[in-house]
Amino acid sequence: MKIIGLNSGEYNSSACFIEDGIIKFAVQEERLNRQKFTKKFPTSSIKEILKNRNLKLSDIDYIGVGWNPSLHMNLFNPLISENRILRENNLYTISDNLFNLTKREFGNYTLVKHDNKKFPDIYHVNHHISHASTAFYLSNLKEAAILTCDFRGENQCTTWGFGKNNKIKILQSQNMPNSLGLMYATYTSLLGFKPDSDEWKVMAMSAYDIDCTNYIKKIKSTYSLKKNGILELNQKYYFNFYQEGVKNHLYTNELLKLLNRSSTIYKTTQNKDDIKIAKALQVCAEEILVHFLNHLFKITKCKNVVLGGGFFMNSVFNGKIETKTKFKNSYISFAPTDTGNSIGSALYIYHDIKNRPRKTINSTALLGSSFKNKDILKSLKRRNIKYLKLKDFAKTVSRECAKGSVVAYFRNKMEFGDRALGCRSIIADPRFLETKDKINKSVKYRESFRPFAPSVISEECSKYFNVLKGYTYNYMERVVKVKSQYRQKLQAITHLDNSARVHTVEKKDNPDFYKILKEFQKITSFPILLNTSFNVNGEPIVCTPDDAISTFYNSKIDVLVIGDYMVKKI
Ligand SMILES: [Fe+2]
Fold first, then answer.
1. CA of 152 relative to ligand 1 center, distance in Å
2. Quick one: 319 and 345 in the same domain?
3. CA 486–ligand 1 middle distance (angstroms)
4. Do residues 126 and 216 both lie within one domain?
5. Burial level of 210, CB count in 10 A (0-12/13-18/19+)?
6. What residues does the ion ligand 1 have nearby, CB within 5 Å?
7. Are 540 and 45 in contact (CB under 8 A)?
8. How far is the CA of 319 from the centre of ligand 1 (A)?
9. Which residues form the domain of 69?
10. What predicted TM-score, i.e. pTM, was given to this entire model?
């Protein structure tokens, strides 16, 4: 069975290809059209899949989409249902009017079929079901409690569910506007950052050691936690989009008053109150998530939990699940955001709708395009770039890093998801603070408080970081503490609160990158490298050799390692 899954219409469009339950290819549209977080229909991604797998659209059995428009077609009611002008709107109008004769129960998906037998059937899977599917099916767990939490889906913003074998059931859900994602976005916006985008900057700010008790009290007064896991936001403070004077803002004047804020303009340097608000928000968000999870444990009594939805990019909270709740085992995929819903919707069709049994999924994020040396060479020669063919790439790369160079590293299949995991990465020596500053100032042009992640050989991780026994951290999905004896020795990857968003590298997943870490250990004694995505601030991660070369020359990166070749700036 061949399925293409899509995330379309939401930020970070993407497409994936699944054959008989196995993910064969996945790519984000931004990597191809070079527009970061693009919302455009993933045409290039679909073409890339068809080219890569040598298929035509007519070879595909089903298309999955991680959004179900049926769930909000009543937004057209009561007037437009009868007055839609465009005839193509009949696709909705007929159903909509018929739903008006019922209790408007839509189920988990909407199927669009065409008489053209060569054209695949299209399943519009509910947004949160798609998040739940990505989390559950990629976890390889036979059964798990499922929590999804994001900015918003069609109407839902949080769901509590349960997965068993090949089936997923949503047990309870919470609709807009009582959204934790929107609440976090509100403060992101109020602090001058871009909501539904820069929340992780606010999360990074929360690491400062500062007393924020007063702000915690204030933020707590804006919501209440109800029985049955529910969050209720006081609408006086949030999302009054059309209130006079605050149009287009998530925050209200009442919230500004409560926090004594007059300015919500972005500043390159954050003041004490900005930092206190960020920290207080993170504390409150964690309290709310624990409330959600405690309820989930109560209704499922399952020790496993899987988490999906954009909120679980909050790696600070992700690192605390086992210590703050009764769950013994948690899983967060490499793509908890909407971009992963291409995978979630496709797997939902295969397992739940078509009732196919689970298979062990090689849950790797390395699902995108790769390039052969001959393609790379063409790109280098076309630009008359002087290069060196590497005899032993791992030795050369590790030596360059140990010398203090900032190295752009391009090799193997491109990662799917928002994080670079050692295939389209900028890497450097993790030992010295100057490296962090150098990358921040000359490549990433970003706020100084934002940390860089360490990549570490999986089996040696527990020597340097306080990690949970038996866990891998293969997707940089959780923040943990750096062990006290290494904090001074690993300054470039140790954040303000002595934490690090650790990335464990397993030999079976990424043998080349693993080899580099081994070689770096021989020189420095540390099997660890600083790893950040290979892009300059505001651009998507590089995809092709041409992107890699342009980004290299448009930044102050010292060395480019691309396939088996190395380029240095003269
Ligand atoms: Fe979402």
1. 6
2. no
3. 37
4. no
5. middle
6. 150, 338
7. no
8. 21
9. 2-140+338-353
10. 0.94
